[in-house]
Inverse folding.
C-alpha cells in the first residue's frame, strides 16, 4: 500500500518550527493590543459569489486559483483565498460597518490558493491581516505602515525589508488609465507573452506586475497612472508621503505596484525583501474605499493589509533570529515498578503546589541511562529521580542538569516547597 502524503502545496508546521510561529504570533498580538485593534474570527468557507464580487472576476485568484466546490445543497462554496472579503461581509452582515463609525480589526488563519507551489508560495498558507473601516484620510494609511514597521523592529527584521508604496487613484482615474494601457500594449502586441496577451483586454493593469524580464523595457515605457490621477488622490498620496517622511519611514514609490486584487484604490503598499528569492512580498495592503458599498453595505472607506506568515517565519529562520528554546524546569526519572506506582500521585501533588511548573514525567519506562538521555534532550534544568531506594526512604534525589549546585535528597513532604523555591 502506498503511504499517504499531504496535499501538494499544503505543509505541516512541526514542533521545531513552532517557536518561530509562536514568537511571531505573540508579537503581533501584543502589537495589535498596543494599537487598539480587536480580534475577529471568521469562517474559512464563504459563498463563492463573495469572492467573485469582491476580488474581481478577471484576477488570477478568481480565474484559476480558488478551491471551490458545491456543498450537499448544491451551493457553490470556496475556501477563502484571502481575508478582506469575509471581513467586509461580516461587517455588513452584523451592521457594524456604518458611516461615521470606526472599526479596527485583525484576523489570522489559513488561506487557500491553487498556485504553483515553490519556496515561499503554498496552496495553504497563513495570513494575519488588519482591516480598518470608516477612515478616509491618509493618517490611517500611515498608522498601518507604522504598525508594520514596529513589527519588523520587534522581530529584528528592519534591515531586510523595504517599503514600496503607490497610488491607484479613484475608480474613474483608473478607468482612464486602463484605456491608455490597452492602447499602448496593443501597439506592442507582438512583444507580449501569453499571460500578458490574456490580460490585455481583461485586466491590463496586471501586465505592469509581470515578472517576465523580457517585458521589463516595455513596461518601463508604459503610460504612468500618476499622469491620469484625479486631484484628490494626488493630494492624498502627497500627504501620505509627507507624513511617512515626517515619521522617519524610508520608502520607495513604485509606480508599477498594482496588486493582484481588483478592489484596491488609492494607497497600496508592499513590504519586500530580497532574502526569499522570487517570493519577495512579506506583507501587503491598501485602501478599498468602494468595496463595502460594492458588497451591499453603505459607502464606508476602508483600508487593510496582510502579513504572509510563512514568509516572515522564513526570514526569521534565514537570519537565525532564534527564539528561546522552550524551557522545562524538571524531568522526573521513574526507575522501577514501585516508583511508577507512586509517581503520578507525587507529581500531581507537586503540580498543585507549584502552578505553572514545567515538568515532564518519564513515560514509557527505560533504564536510568535512557531516562537521563531523555531528560537531557528535554533541556530540563533539574532532574528529579525516584528509584527503588528513594521510594523506600520516601525521598527524591534532586540533580541539577543546567544549574549550579550539588545533588541532594529531599523528603517527599518537602518536594513541593523545594520546587517552588527553585522554579516557582
Ligand atoms: P495578498 O492577499 O495577495 O495581498 O497577499 C498578502 C501576503 O500574503 C503576501 O505579501 C505574501 O506575503 C502572502 N502570500 C500571498 N500568497 C501566498 C502564497 N501562495 N503562499 C505564501 N504566502 C502568500
Amino acid at each position: 500500500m502506498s503511504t499517504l502524503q499531504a496535499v501538494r502545496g499544503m505543509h505541516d508546521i512541526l514542533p521545531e518550527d513552532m517557536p518561530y510561529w509562536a514568537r511571531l504570533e505573540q508579537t503581533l498580538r501584543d502589537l495589535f493590543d498596543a494599537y487598539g485593534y480587536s480580534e475577529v474570527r471568521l469562517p474559512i468557507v464563504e459563498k463563492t459569489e463573495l469572492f467573485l464580487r469582491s476580488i474581481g472576476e478577471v484576477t488570477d485568484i478568481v480565474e484559476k486559483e480558488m478551491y471551490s466546490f458545491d456543498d450537499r445543497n448544491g451551493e457553490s462554496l470556496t475556501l477563502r483565498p484571502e481575508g478582506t472579503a469575509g471581513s467586509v461581509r461580516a461587517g455588513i452582515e452584523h451592521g457594524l460597518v456604518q458611516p461615521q463609525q470606526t472599526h479596527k480589526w485583525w484576523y489570522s488563519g489559513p488561506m487557500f490558493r491553487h498556485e504553483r507551489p515553490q519556496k515561499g508560495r503554498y496552496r495553504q498558507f497563513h495570513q494575519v491581516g488588519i482591516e480598518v473601516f470608516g477612515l478616509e484620510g491618509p493618517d490611517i494609511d500611515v498608522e498601518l505602515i507604522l504598525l508594520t514597521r514596529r513589527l519588523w523592529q520587534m522581530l529584528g527584521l528592519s534591515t531586510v525589508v523595504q517599503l514600496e508604496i503607490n497610488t491607484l487613484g479613484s475608480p474613474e482615474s483608473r478607468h482612464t488609465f486602463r484605456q491608455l494601457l490597452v492602447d499602448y500594449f496593443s501597439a506592442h502586441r507582438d512583444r507580449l507573452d501569453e499571460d500578458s496577451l490574456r490580460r490585455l483586454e481583461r485586466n491590463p493593469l496586471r501586465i505592469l506586475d509581470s515578472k517576465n524580464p523580457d517585458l521589463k523595457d516595455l513596461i518601463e515605457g508604459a503610460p504612468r497612472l500618476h499622469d491620469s490621477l484625479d486631484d484628490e488622490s494626488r493630494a492624498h498620496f502627497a500627504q501620505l508621503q509627507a507624513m511617512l517622511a515626517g515619521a522617519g519611514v524610508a520608502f520607495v514609490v513604485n509606480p508599477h505596484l498594482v496588486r493582484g486584487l481588483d478592489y484596491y484604490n488609492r494607497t497600496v503598499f508592499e513590504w519586500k525583501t530580497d532574502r526569499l528569492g522570487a517570493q519577495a512580498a512579506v506583507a501587503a495592503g491598501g485602501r478599498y474605499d468602494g468595496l463595502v458599498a460594492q458588497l451591499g453595505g453603505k459607502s464606508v472607506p476602508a483600508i487593510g493589509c496582510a502579513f504572509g506568515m510563512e514568509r516572515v517565519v522564513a526570514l526569521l529562520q534565514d537570519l537565525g533570529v532564534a527564539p528561546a528554546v522552550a524551557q522545562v524546569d524538571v524531568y522526573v526519572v521513574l526507575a522501577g515498578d514501585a516508583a511508577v506506582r507512586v509517581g503520578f500521585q507525587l507529581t500531581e501533588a507537586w503540580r498543585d503546589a507549584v502552578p505553572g511548573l514545567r515538568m515532564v514525567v518519564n513515560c514509557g519506562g527505560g533504564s536510568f541511562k535512557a531516562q537521563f538521555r531523555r531528560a537531557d534532550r528535554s533541556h530540563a534544568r533539574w532532574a528529579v529521580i525516584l528509584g527503588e531506594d528513594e521510594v523506600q526512604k520516601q525521598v527524591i534525589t534532586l540533580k541539577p542538569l543546567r544549574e549550579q549546585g550539588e545533588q541532594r535528597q529531599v523528603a517527599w513532604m518537602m518536594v513541593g516547597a523545594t520546587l517552588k523555591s527553585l522554579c516557582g
Residues 106 and 217 are 39 Å apart (CA to CA). The longest strand covers residues 103-112. The longest helix spans residues 18-35. Residues 330-418 form a domain with the Rossmann fold fold (CATH 3.40.50.800).
